[in-house]
Input
Amino acid sequence: MRRALLTALACGLASASLAQQPPLSSIRVTGDARVTAKPDRVQIDIGVMTRAPLSADAATQNAREVDAVLAGVRKAAGSAATLRTISYSLSPNYRYHPKESEPTIEGYTALNVVQVTLDDLARIGTVIDAATQAGANRIQGIQFTLRDQDAVRAQALREAATRARAEVDVLAAALGLKVLRVLTVEESSPRVMPVRVYSGAARAMSADAAAPTPVEAGTLDITADVTLSVEVGPASR
Output
């Protein structure tokens, strides 16, 4: 009983001591940064859409045309490019009748979308033209990105952290305070904003076209936020 009483007394004294401690004076700010980079990789989504009265015919025709498109793209893109199927669908086409409750199937549509990843941006137009000449009738999208995003993300974080610390120092000095220590650091994962520049139905190019389809890469924006919380005290301390 005595030991329990002594323990309770010690806990009470510790709680009282903590309660007497003044709250920390702190400043909390968020610094943001935006880094602009030139993309060095592109992803082109190329689609082949076919229609036929029977599902088997739509699928067979689609497979034949996709094989031709892949052959043309590989030749134009070179051995360094990578190709992969990102979506495939085979769906019925319905005809709706105003006076009938049930629609009827009038055929089937097959759609196969292949993504081409290319590091040689100078070949973009040539690849698109080769695909359309081989039978592609959909360019689902062109997305520019970076091969190595880590270095640019790290730069964005550094700049955001530097800006947050600079703002803390300005606020502390303006209030006659100084920074004693960093309490917490929170960061949002830097975001790379890919640039999508084109989507829609492909336009077939004539075999004797004078120049490949022009596509401008533009630039990418990478953003980051860093929230900094610091303890401050009187500047004379």
Observations:
- The chain has a mean pLDDT of 84.
- Residues 69 and 134 are 5 Å apart (CA to CA).
- The longest strand covers residues 177-193.
